[in-house]
Specification:
The chain is of the alpha+beta class. Among the domains are: 173 residues, TIM Barrel (Alpha-Beta Barrel), CATH 3.20.20; 118 residues, Jelly Rolls (Sandwich), CATH 2.60.120.380; 118 residues, Immunoglobulin-like (Sandwich). It contains 20 helices and 40 strands. The strands form 10 sheets. Strands 13, 14, 15, 16, 18, 20, 21 and 23 form an 8-stranded antiparallel beta sheet that branches. The chain has a 6-stranded mixed beta sheet with strand order 9-29-28-25-10-11. Helix 18 links the parallel strand 28 and strand 29. Helix 2 packs across helix 12. The longest helix is centred in the N-terminal third of the chain and has 23 residues. This is PA14 domain-containing protein. Belongs to the glycosyl hydrolase 3 family. One of its GO terms (molecular function) is xylan 1,4-beta-xylosidase activity.
């Protein structure tokens, strides 16, 4: 019997060996990703290779390759793929000055992304916004507050941006050395890219001073490549010194791959390759073949777009050799093997993360913590804040009850968003609250929405059906429910619904309106597409295509009646948009607003702007806004006028400013007693702000950007020189400086000490700073350390080199220790055009702001 078992065991081993040996190497998980990729690429046809180098990569069944889309987003939570925890917008998280907390946030984000990917994988091949390659973080320098996409960055400082960016990468990619990577992050947009949006497809960033390039625009990318080992880099739309960034040998080959040793993937920004040859874009190349060959030869491995479909023709024309295509494709396939996407989920530990992590209690609490830490108290005259909970409060302003605004852009969809009004209602009974919107963001006519008086199938809002064709043919491909006024736009490739095309699609939205009273109801649309409105089966408006929000129909609604509303939409080309809301149109009456809130002890004004007017390449036609950018940085006039009237009425005013960028709040700093910068604070924003307003949380956020006094303080938007920009090169006084932020307590800095006054090249030293909490509240302080080189008259006045957010109890003193390494003492060397420690005398400046007159100093010599 024993002999028989031995014989059977031997046969079993032989069978396993035979199966293993009969498998092609690319299917063997025991081999390295490089070995597997090399084997697989050799089995592909040229046409298959070209297909796999586009973001929407098809399945190749004969080799067991599943469909995969490289495009996914996770800017501040898993984006554009349904339910997800929505954290504050990136600029707000930059204001936390807490890279450790940011790492925790993106660990949570990567947990949700993996769990969602596992669910999506059950349906077969992965579509857009379902994969494991996240095109995050945006580490461009926010050099000018007019840039609409600056909200996606971590601010104006290269060091802060690098530290925050590395935390994001490490949280997304997971610990190094594991068999499989958790996700792949992407450093974007490389390089020298920060607007304007309206001409980004043709703009040439030229005559860039070497100092600006190496001291400002490249450091964060270098950090993410060499220290955090980011797995993807996205090249930008614009040209750099005459060459499109995605075809720049200087940026991609000389700097990125040769100097920095980057061996991973470069991905193009979306349709950036077509800008090489499109009319009115860069027009550097005659056609797709030349553009695609140039991009691949320059090191761009995967295209977001479809120009790379021409690569086989480019090979035939002798523009590129197939071996060059293989180099790029091997990097792509290696990445898919590293992620475990080509293997069975049971073999991948990350694929075992349960779906229950999505929108979990722990993640909602983390969103609240980050929202709190992002809030910056800019002004607090006579210690108006925190507010007494016995006061009668008027909540006024266009952003007081706007949940969608709080999501920012590139967002997911939370299960619930707490607006500022809702957050205040958690503290005060209705008898102590007066809610009066007062005005729109920018218009003299405000729409008081009755959207919530619409319901379908027992749910507030509209039912939605979507088809991946333009004629609503067949069974809908997706059905869902819309519970808030519509704000759909495909710019940046945000689909109307997960699983629906960016173009060649149609939609139908239905609901029943039950008016609470008899009145005229305006139906307001902003659309790019063929839109039709029907009420009770009768078409009342059709063929709508309005770039501005426009009233298209007025319903004389009668209380007690029901009105069946249907909106049909179809679109064929890029940049579809559909904004819709309905309500009573009320001309702004400033005196009437003041009368309505006259009983209030204090006004909480929720103003600022919104992602509806600032963002990526937008099509809004509102004075002061262009292409998603701003032409002026002042608060919209209607809001300033209303605040002035409230001030004249003798009211104490707390201004809560929602924005993704700096607002020139010079008039408001005189009109308002307290100013709290809220950014776009995510799903828990209302609770976090209310916690601060009523004293249950002591604010400690710091500005990651300079708040200028006015647009006049800014250089030309298209000038990429750093002269006169940001705290490092600004010569005038700003309204609120980089690093500024108040607390309900006070901190005092003692004299710092270094363990040596002379630092030799490569030596690490320790800076010890005594910080005392001299106020009445426990609080957190952001200790900021700057380096100054008095002998360099052309360089920055000072530059951030370290920071640490510390909690200090009232009456206590903490000795804050900050290690400083060789890299903290790098300065630009004009003789070699490099960043390195240069011998000489320096000053280490330290304190709770970047404002020079408030910083203490200690001398240090670099040997």
């Amino acid at each position: 019997m024993k002999r028989k078992l031995q014989l059977l065991t031997g046969i079993g081993c032989l069978c396993l060996c035979f199966l293993s040996c009969s498998q092609p190497p690319y299917k063997n998980p025991a081999l390295s990703p490089e070995e597997r990729a090399n084997d697989l690429v050799g089995r592909l046809t040229l046409e298959e290779k070209a297909a796999l180098m586009q973001n929407t990569s098809p399945a190749i069944p004969r080799l067991g390759i599943k469909a995969y889309d490289w495009w996914n987003e996770a800017l501040h939570g898993v984006g554009r793929a349904g339910l997800a925890t929505v954290f504050p917008q990136a600029i707000g998280m930059g204001a936390s000055f807490n890279n450790e907390l940011l790492y925790d946030v993106f660990t949570a984000v990567s947990d949700e992304a993996r769990a969602k990917n596992t669910e999506f994988s059950k349906e077969g091949g992965l579509k857009r916004y379902q994969g494991l390659t996240m095109w995050t973080p945006n580490i461009n320098i926010f050099r000018d507050p007019r840039w609409g996409r600056g909200q996606e960055t971590y601010g104006e400082d290269p060091y802060l941006t690098g530290q925050m960016g590395m935390a994001v990468v490490r949280g997304l990619q997971g610990p190094e050395g594991e068999k499989y990577d958790k996700l792949h992050a992407c450093a974007k947009h490389y390089a020298v890219h920060s607007g304007p949006e309206w001409n980004r497809h043709s703009f040439n960033a030229e005559n860039i001073d070497p100092r600006d390039l190496w001291e400002t625009y490249l450091p964060a990318f270098k950090d993410l490549v060499q220290k955090a080992h980011v797995k993807e880099v996205m090249c930008a739309y614009n040209r750099f010194e005459g060459e499109p960034c995605c075809g720049s040998n200087r940026l991609l080959m000389q700097i990125l791959r040769d100097e920095w040793g980057y061996k991973e993937i470069v991905v193009s920004d979306c349709w950036a390759i077509s800008d090489f040859y499109n009319k009115d874009a860069h027009e550097t190349d005659p056609d797709k073949q030349h553009a695609s060959a140039k991009a691949v030869l320059s090191g761009t491995d995967v295209e977001c777009g479809d120009s790379y479909a021409s690569l086989p023709e480019a090979v035939k024309e002798g523009l590129i050799d197939e071996k060059q295509i293989d180099i790029s494709l091997k990097r792509l396939m290696k990445a898919r093997f590293e992620l475990g996407e080509m293997d069975e989920p049971s073999q991948v530990s990350w694929a075992q993360i349960p779906y229950s992590v999505v929108d979990s209690k722990e993640h909602r609490e983390l969103a609240l913590r980050m929202a709190r830490e992002s809030l910056v108290l800019l002004q607090n005259n006579q210690s108006l804040l925190p507010l007494n909970k016995n006061l009668k409060v008027a909540v006024v302003g266009p952003n007081a009850n706007d949940s969608v605004m709080q999501w920012g852009n590139y967002n997911g969809f939370p299960s619930h968003t707490i607006t500022l009004l809702e957050g205040i209602r958690e503290y005060l009974p209705e008898s102590q609250i007066i809610y009066e919107p007062g005005c729109d963001l920018t218009s003299d006519v405000t729409l008081q929405s009755v959207f919530q008086q619409c319901s379908m199938d027992g749910k507030q809002g509209f039912s939605a059906k979507y088809w991946n064709n333009t004629k609503q043919e067949g069974t809908p491909d997706v059905t869902n429910h819309i519970s808030t006024p519509f704000h759909f736009i495909t710019t940046g490739a945000t689909t109307f619904a997960a699983g629906i095309n960016l173009q060649d699609f149609s939609a139908s939205y239905e609901s029943v309106f039950r008016p609470a009273k008899s009145e005229d109801i305006a139906f307001r649309f902003q659309t790019q597409g063929i839109t039709k409105l029907s009420i009770d089966g009768k078409e009342v408006a059709a063929g709508m295509n309005f770039k501005n929000k426009s009233k298209v129909y007025t319903l004389q609604a009668e209380a007690g009646k029901e009105y069946r509303i249907k909106i049909d939409f179809a679109f064929r080309n890029r940049d579809a948009a559909l904004d819709f809301d309905m309500g009573r149109e009320v001309p702004v009456d400033l005196k009437q607003t003041v009368d309505k809130v006259k009983e209030a002890d204090v006004i909480i004004f929720a103003g600022g702007i919104s992602p509806a007017v600032e963002g990526e390449e937008m099509h809004v036609n509102i004075p002061g806004f262009k292409g998603g950018d701003r032409e002026t940085i002042e608060l919209p006039s209607i809001q300033s006028r209303l605040l002035a009237e409230l001030k004249k009425a003798g009211k104490k005013i707390v201004f809560v400013n929602f924005s993704g960028s700096a607002i020139a709040l010079t008039p408001e700093s005189k009109t308002c007693d307290a100013i709290l910068q809220a950014w776009y604070p995510g799903q828990a924003g209302g609770t976090a702000i209310a916690n601060v307003l009523f004293g249950d949380y002591n604010p400690a956020g710091r500005l990651p950007v300079t708040f200028y006094k006015s647009t006049k303080q800014l250089p030309d938007f298209e000038d990429y020189s750093m002269k006169g920009r940001t705290y490092r090169y600004m010569t005038e006084n700003p309204l609120f400086p980089f690093g500024h932020g108040l607390s309900y307590t006070t901190f005092q800095y003692g004299n710092a000490s270094l363990n040596t006054s002379e630092i030799k090249d490569g030596e690490q030293v320790t800076l010890t700073i005594p910080v005392s909490n001299t106020g009445k509240y426990d609080g957190e302080e952001v200790v900021q350390v700057y380096l100054r080189h008095p002998g360099d008259k052309e360089g920055p006045s000072h530059a951030l080199r370290a920071f640490k957010r510390v909690a200090i109890a009232k009456g206590a003193t903490n000795n804050v220790t900050i290690p400083l390494s060789k890299e903290n003492f790098e300065w630009f060397d004009t003789s070699t055009n490099t960043m390195r420690p240069i011998e000489g005398d320096y000053e280490i400046l330290y304190g709770g702001t970047s404002e020079l007159k408030q910083l203490k100093s200690i001398p240090v010599t670099i040997k």
